[in-house]
Write a structure and sequence with these properties.
Layout: H1 8-14, H2 23-30, H3 34-53, H4 56-73, H5 76-84, H6 89-101, H7 105-117, H8 122-135, H9 139-149, H10 157-169, H11 173-186, H12 191-203, H13 207-217, H14 225-237, H15 241-254, H16 259-271, H17 278-291, H18 302-310, H19 316-319, H20 324-328, H21 335-347, H22 354-357, H23 374-380, H24 391-399, H25 405-409, H26 413-417, H27 424-436
Helix pairs in contact: 1-3, 3-4, 4-5, 4-6, 5-6, 6-7, 7-8, 8-9, 8-10, 9-10, 10-11, 11-12, 12-13, 13-14, 14-15, 15-16
């Protein structure tokens, strides 16, 4: 039996007051589908018109309603404007939560303090305060707050969410997931917890679970940008390009100045018409494995082996990236050594200089240069995660098996652009992050 729709208009328009007890009913109504979101937008228009004609005594109540409406529509700047012009514990509490969404943590703490002093439930305020302190890096104080309310909050989903967030901040993912799952068990609509579970599954490569949690987030506004960006990238990775494009369109519609969303949408739409052959990809994988075969796997004369070692040639792929004159220019490398190498390459259906003719498109492994200072070597040895790349760019790094900055710097622009779902937006992001660290891609 279909659950009857919550009458949002009766909740927000026909009643003069809006109280804390009505928030759960509002959230329930908004989880009932897109039509309810459209209804909330219509309600916003009605309240705006009433505000324009309302006497001063009624304006504060209307500002509260409008602040709550804009909060759930994701219009956080407008929510702040209205909530600041209202008064009472609920207005202060929502103001604090809205500041948290905007990353304005000092302002959030002030609003939560005001909410508690004016009579808002102390425990709820303490949970929010713990979350803000954690976000500011004060894990110890956040833990102290949660420890004080632990015995009284065993059945409160917000407590378990905040406890899980602290555990995650401390690197204890197992405990974090356990706490998050308990929070969702108590409140299946707890959007912040759903997002963390989605994100952790995303990092672990559990795409189906991550997509499921992100999709559940979409049912419970306000919907953060991270939900749509991460879900869009996951859809792309699973070749659901129509769904990915829809996510990026929503982002660009919400913020027309978000050029990244526009470009991501363009990439996803273009991918809908791209041809993909699993058989061809398998052939490509096998070919790359051949290219990475070490020279030491073959019987070579001592002279040839030593010459290749001096030239820093370690794999068959390396031999496809040099030409015959370059080999012959090496000291003690003559026609006999060249013929020896050709026999090996022909046996693997390769030839010297092959990649040069095809635009250096094949992979190769990073090898530290011997002429670098210890500081430069240390920099290039840092994990690529230190660049703090977006989800899409980070997934491409994983797909290309790029683990360090040195390995990344050995790639060319063309090599990166050949990676699945790696477009100009991701390339520019990578280049900007490398530039900040004084590095660049090969060939730049």
């Amino acid at each position: 039996m279909t659950e009857p729709l919550v009458d949002l208009k009766a909740l927000l328009v026909e009643r003069e007051e809006f109280e804390g007890s009505m928030v759960s009913k509002l959230r329930e109504g908004l989880s009932q589908g897109a039509n309810q979101i459209r209804a909330l937008k219509d309600i916003n228009d009605i309240l705006q018109k009433r505000l324009a004609a309302a006497p001063p005594a009624q304006q504060k109540k209307l500002h509260l309603k409008l602040g709550v409406v804009h909060h759930y529509l994701g219009h956080m700047a407008l929510a702040v404007e209205h909530l600041k012009q209202s008064e009472g514990p609920l207005a202060s509490f929502f103001l604090g939560r809205t500041h948290v969404h905007r990353g304005e943590f000092d302002e959030a703490l002030k609003a939560f303090e005001k909410a508690e002093k004016s009579g808002y439930a102390a425990q709820s305020v303490q949970f929010q305060r713990a979350g803000v302190l954690r976000a500011q890096g004060d894990i110890a104080q956040a833990k102290q707050i949660l420890a004080k309310v632990k015995d009284m909050a065993a059945h409160n989903p917000e407590y378990h969410y905040q406890d899980g967030s602290v555990a995650e901040a401390e690197g204890d993912t197992v405990r974090a997931v356990k706490a998050y799952e308990r929070a969702v068990e108590l409140d299946p609509s707890h959007s912040a917890t759903l997002f963390r579970l989605a994100f952790l599954n995303d990092l672990a490569g559990n795409d189906d679970e991550a997509i499921s949690y992100y999709e559940r987030c979409l049912k419970h506004p306000p919907i953060g940008k991270g939900v749509l960006y991460n879900l869009g990238v996951l859809y792309e990775d699973n070749e659901r390009f129509d769904k990915a494009a829809e996510c990026f369109r929503r982002l660009h519609k919400a913020d027309p100045l978000d050029d990244r969303a526009r470009l991501f949408c363009k990439d996803a739409e273009a991918a809908m018409t791209m041809y993909y052959s699993p058989d061809e990809e398998q052939v490509s994988v096998q070919f790359k494995q051949v290219m990475e075969t070490p020279i030491t796997d073959f019987e070579l004369s001592v002279r040839s082996r030593n010459c290749l070692k001096r030239m820093n040639i370690r794999t068959l792929g390396d031999l496809t990236r040099v030409n015959e004159p370059q080999l012959l220019a090496s000291k003690n490398f003559g026609e006999t050594s060249l013929d020896e190498i050709k026999i090996i390459m022909n046996a693997k259906s390769l030839r010297i200089g092959q990649s040069l003719d095809q635009g250096q498109q094949y992979e190769f492994r990073y090898r530290p240069q011997s002429n670098l200072s210890p500081e430069e070597q240390a920099m290039l040895g840092k994990p690529v995660s230190e660049l703090n790349l977006s989800v899409r760019a980070r997934k491409c790094m994983n797909r290309l098996n790029i683990a360090t900055l040195g390995e990344l710097c050995q790639r060319t622009t063309d090599e990166l652009l050949e990676a699945k779902n790696f477009g100009i937006t991701s390339l520019n992001e990578v280049k900007e992050k490398l530039t900040l660290m004084g590095l660049k891609l090969r060939g730049d």
